[in-house]
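Sample entry was shown:
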Amino acid sequence: MLDLIDPIAAVLPAQIDISPNSNGLPGIGQLRRIVGASMTVGLILAVLALIVSAIVWALGANSSNPHLAGRGKIGVLIALGAAIITGASVALVNFFWNVGQAV
């Protein structure tokens, strides 16, 4: 039984070294442009949400409506968080990729 395991162990590679490449599949360049365009759209929508939320906050504060003002404040925080995550997405993915490679 041990004789069967030894040849199998000799066939298996001792170390696997795979890294991402840019030319493995057709359309990688177009996919990068689509992702970049999606990030641009996300940032534009975050700015729009920030403007609308600030207006709602101002209307709620000026009309003495605490519910509306609170919703505006939460909207501002969410819009800022969306902009931070969208802007930092590439850096976050690269950071966690490097952490995964160190394991």
Observations:
- The radius of gyration is 25 Å.
- The chain has a mean pLDDT of 88.
- The chain has three helices and no strands.
- The CA atoms of residues 46 and 81 lie 9 Å apart.
